[in-house]
Design goal:
- This protein has about 475 residues and is of the alpha+beta class.
- The chain has three domains: about 45 residues, no CATH class; about 160 residues, no CATH class; about 200 residues, no CATH class.
- Helix content is about 35%, strand content about 20%.
- The protein has 14 helices and twelve strands.
- The strands form two sheets. It has a six-stranded antiparallel β-barrel with strand order 6-7-8-9-12-11. A two-stranded parallel sheet has the order 2-3.
């Protein structure tokens, strides 16, 4: 692995075709088998197509390579077989996993990983969920530093590769991390632990360059809801022009203008629903502050207060909802107790220094629609009232990082308490970045150890930065 450029060389399609023709000229099955062992090539009828490049046009199956291949191999054949994860550790891992409360649409992990070989019969989906959701929190205390690096790098790779929208720089990062993983395995566990799937993973970046994000040719793992209603490939042309235009305009609006909450969004509010209710007085005051910050050139006030020139009256009347659906994703709230597991969300805020931006976790209390008459128009705003968690100190927050590099931290630790109510509790639903799974976590086994909230991001169906 010293210098990839010396050995990581793509096969020549012309030479491959010539070798395939040589295979056809073999006289017996035994001769053909010997030829394959030496050259690794067989004839395929598809090679009769002169334009078909069998090297570039064959893609790596991410489902089998990443999840049924590498994830399973690292866990079972390295960590378990090499006694990094003992039976006692597996029992502790299972106990911690039982504390996770996942939204119903994420599926479930089998409940007895400590029995038999452990992790038996996991599907690709379950391996994906295990590494993206459970692994960092449940494995960290049972792994030495070298294996924490393997874990952290692999979780980051999976996070990037299962996204719907992937930037080229992210793909390069994923490729570099895969190389680091293979080097770590070779260095600490020997060349015998380097499998074909580990080698094939180094081609995933090239496959993505040619065919787009991995989900586009791996529907078994992530699913492609966008195409579900289209009966055939030819029907792709049936996408209405207005849908494409609306998507383009929404994208431009997000990039070029501040979000107020009255923009169109491709979603709906769901029950439980309460119409024309009065907001609590404290929330009503925060709503007026929200409007003042959002429309800086306008003046807002309550009814029956000082009648300032050109001021806008904010009526205390709103429609409140317990859930919101955007595409195939449903966000719950504390007001919808059956859906409280999907009420934990992330959003970005500008820090107090006025320059840096940070992502904050919080819990949605409820969604609401509120209308205000402004500039001769009645504007309906789609908003969420969210309580935000307090950050832990930097050392604790980035506890799951490698070599004190915060960029390697896939899961953060936050205080298990909320900020006091403020104007930031009300945000447009357009500003919700995605969901996370909260899990209580202690950095040590001491009885008096402080309990934090582990914030585990969930890859959103529509990935936003």
């Amino acid at each position: 692995m010293a210098d990839m450029s010396d050995w990581f060389i793509m096969k020549d399609p012309v030479e491959h075709r010539q070798k395939a023709l040589e295979w056809r000229r073999c006289k017996s099955n035994a001769e053909r088998e010997r030829f394959v062992k030496v050259n690794g090539v067989r004839w395929s009828e598809i090679l009769r197509l002169s334009y078909f490049d069998l090297i570039q046009f064959v893609v790596i199956d991410p489902m089998h390579c990443l999840f049924l291949g590498i994830a399973k191999w690292i866990t079972k054949r390295i960590w378990i077989d090499e006694d990094v994860l003992t039976e006692k550790a597996l029992q502790s891992i299972q106990k911690k996993m039982s504390e996770f409360k996942l939204p119903s649409d994420l599926g479930r992990i089998p409940g007895k990983i400590h029995c038999g070989e452990g992790f038996s019969n996991f599907t690709a989906d379950q391996w994906r969920n295990f590494f993206l959701i459970y692994a960092t929190v449940v494995l960290w205390n049972h792994l030495p530093n070298k294996d924490r690096k393997i874990l952290t790098y692999f979780v980051r790779v999976c996070t990037i590769l299962v996204r719907r929208i992937v930037e080229i720089n992210d793909m390069k990062e994923a490729h570099e991390l895969l190389v680091k993983i293979i080097k770590l395995i070779e260095e600490h566990y020997g060349e015998g632990k380097i499998t074909p799937n580990l080698h094939l993973s180094l081609h995933l970046c090239e496959c993505s360059y040619d065919y787009g994000p991995l989900y586009s040719f791996c529907s078994e793992v992530i699913g492609i809801e966008l195409l579900n209603k289209r009966p055939s490939v030819s029907s792709l042309s049936e996408f209405p022009t207005n849908e494409m235009y609306q998507f383009l305009m929404n994208s431009r609006n997000i990039l070029e203008s501040p979000i107020t909450g009255c923009e169109e969004f491709l979603g709906i509010f769901l029950a439980p629903r309460s119409e024309d209710i009065r907001l609590d007085e404290q929330i009503y005051d925060l709503l007026i502050e929200y409007y003042k910050d959002t429309y800086v050139d306008s003046i807002f006030r309550k009814p029956f207060t000082e009648n300032l020139p050109n001021s806008t009256i904010v009526i205390n009347k709103a429609n409140r909802y317990g859930r919101c659906q955007i595409g195939a994703e449903i966000f719950g709230s504390a007001a919808a107790t059956r859906h409280i597991k999907s009420s934990f969300v992330l959003a970005k805020f500008i820090n107090r220094d006025g320059n840096s931006v940070d992502t904050y976790p919080g819990q949605i209390q409820f969604f609401f629609e509120h209308s205000v008459h402004l500039s001769s128009h009645n504007l309906t705003h789609k908003l969420a009232y969210i309580k935000w968690y307090k950050p832990a100190n930097l050392t604790s927050r980035f506890h799951f990082s490698i070599d004190d590099d915060v960029k390697t931290c896939n899961v953060e630790l936050w205080e298990d308490s909320f900020y006091l109510s403020s104007r930031d509790n009300i945000i447009p639903i357009h500003n919700i970045l995605g969901q996370f799974i909260p899990v209580k976590y202690k950095k040590s086994d001491r009885s008096n150890a402080k309990e934090y909230l582990a914030v585990i991001p969930i890859n959103r169906k529509f990935h936003l930065r």
